[in-house]
Amino acid sequence: MASRQRCPRLLAQLRPRVSPASHCRTTPIRRARYSSSSEPKNSSSNTGFTIGIILTATALGCAATFAYKYPLPARPARLDEPTLADKDALKKREAVIGNDSPMRLRMEKFIKEQQQIIVKELERVDGKKFQVDEWERPNGGGGITCVLQEGNTFEKAGVGVSVVYGSLPKAGIAAMRANHKSLDPNLESLEFFAAGLSMVLHPWNPMAPTVHLNYRYFETALPDGTSQAWWFGGGSDLTPSYLFDEDAIHFHKTLKEACDKHDKEYYPRFKKWCDEYFVNTHRNETRGVGGIFFDDLDETERDQENTFAFIQSCLKSFLPSYIPLIEKRKDMPFTEAEKAWQQIRRGRYVEFNLLHDRGTAFGLSKPGARVESILMSLPLTASWKYMHEPKAGSREARLVEVLQQPKEWV
Predict the structure, then answer these.
(1) Which of 135, 171, 198, 355 is most deeply buried (CB count within 10 A of its CB)?
(2) For the stretch 39-54, what's the b/e string if a residue is b when 16 or more beta carbons lie within 10 angstroms of its beta carbon?
(3) Mean pLDDT value of segment 120-148
(4) What does the pLDDT read at residue 181?
(5) Which residues are catalytic?
(6) Nearest Cα to 211, choosing from 125, 129, 133?
């Protein structure tokens, strides 16, 4: 009984928090309509409703019903739309990537497969294993960076795959329309995908040439995930410290055969493009003896399937173009002076990559850039000697002459 007598006093203390229609009784709750805090209290909107909380005060021997008015959103919150990266991740979980998959996923699959094949063959040549570094980007994508340092054959070798998702602002779309008229300039933003395989091999032996390779794919996508615009780019080029004509001829011949399978005009066109792109303009010399280079191959060139087939042929031609050269030169004798010349030529390689290469500049300009992967192409060692000039008539001087006047090798 004592507890029952205390019930009215407790209710009196709680009464400011109790709805006027509710008292210490066991009758059903009286329903009332409440609006969200963003609407007038007398609104007839059907978004309001009552939250009833029934408290049974067993210790007091009575039951009290309380009705609280909570501010609620006028409409259910909308979840963010899935990004292109989210949609692609779902596709890769749900199905095997095949010929009916989006090109961006097929390209990603292809370059990852080729990375494994190339790394395995380079490990066979060198005798040591690559360090494999897998990484992810916070907004989707990521990559696999494989690096071999201080091996038996290679002072430094890097083979990296990078996959990037992002969004182009209106200004970025306008800038890209200079080369890609299919981009819609009226869009405020556009999701994009970029994927590529990049490789640079720097051998110990100055008689063995450095080699560079890059093949990449870029695509913009509409909100439903379908392609809005696409293009391929890439190439491969040879950079010797000591020139063996037969090596340059073999390298170019292999690339020409890969190009000729698709278009007889490709090799001469892309060889010229390479000679004009890989140039240290401040020294008036090319970086090496060339190869092929191209960019922005899109639907104005030919259809997507045939362009992808061309990219596949070029990338698959790398091992036949280079492995015979490295196996022939990696164990040749050399002098300290010849090693010193290699270091100077590597300095010129660094100059091009840091001063003129568009890919390096693009990568480093992006927020959250993975610097180690971008600068993977730089040699482990290099040197710069003040006012150094090779002796007239020497092998070193002949290399410089060829770099100043590129040759037709095949």
Answers:
(1) 198
(2) eeeeeeeebbeeebee
(3) 94
(4) 67
(5) 212
(6) 125
Specify the length of the chain in residues. 410
User: Is the separation of the CB atoms in 100 and 93 below 8 Å?
Assistant: no
Q: How confident is the model at residue 159 (pLDDT cuts 50, 70, 90)?
A: very high
Comparison of pLDDT for 115 and 87, the residue scoring more: 115
Residue with the bigger pLDDT between 7 and 364: it is 364
Q: Which residue has the tokens 């067993």?
A: 58
List the beta bridge partners of residue 249: none
pLDDT of residue 369: 76
State how far the Cα of 70 lies from the Cα of 404, in Å rounded to an integer: 79
161/5 Cα distance (integer angstroms): 78
The Cα 321–Cα 259 span in angstroms is 13
Distances (CA, A) of 162 to 109, 141, 319, 362, 370: 12, 8, 20, 13, 10
- Region 263-291 average pLDDT: 97
Three-class DSSP labels, the chain = CHHHHHHHHHHHHHHHHCCCCCCECCCCCCCCCCCCCCCCCCCCCCCCCCEEEEEEEHHHCEEEEEEECCCCCCCCCCCCCCCHHHHHHHHHHHCCCCCCCCHHHHHHHHHHHHHHHHHHHHHHHHCCCCEEEEEECCCCEEEEEEEEECCCCEEEEEEEEEEEEEEEEHHHHHHHCCCCCCCCCCCCEEEEEEEEEEEEEEECCCCCCEEEEEEEEEEEECCCCCEEEEEEEEEEEEECCCCCHHHHHHHHHHHHHHHHCCCCCHHHHHHHHHHHHCEECCCCEECCCEEEEEEEECCCCCCHHHHHHHHHHHHHCHHHHHHHHHHHHCCCCCCHHHHHHHHHHHHHHHHHHHHCCHHHHHHHHCCCCCHHHHHHHCCCCCCCCCCCCCCCCCHHHHHHHHHHCCCCCC
pLDDT exceeds 60 at position 128: yes
pLDDT for 41 beyond 60: no
What mean pLDDT is reported for the chain? Answer: 83
Does the reported pTM lie above 0.70?
A: yes
388 Cβ partners below 8 Å, 6+ apart?
344
User: Which pLDDT score, from 0 to 100, does residue 225 have?
Assistant: 76
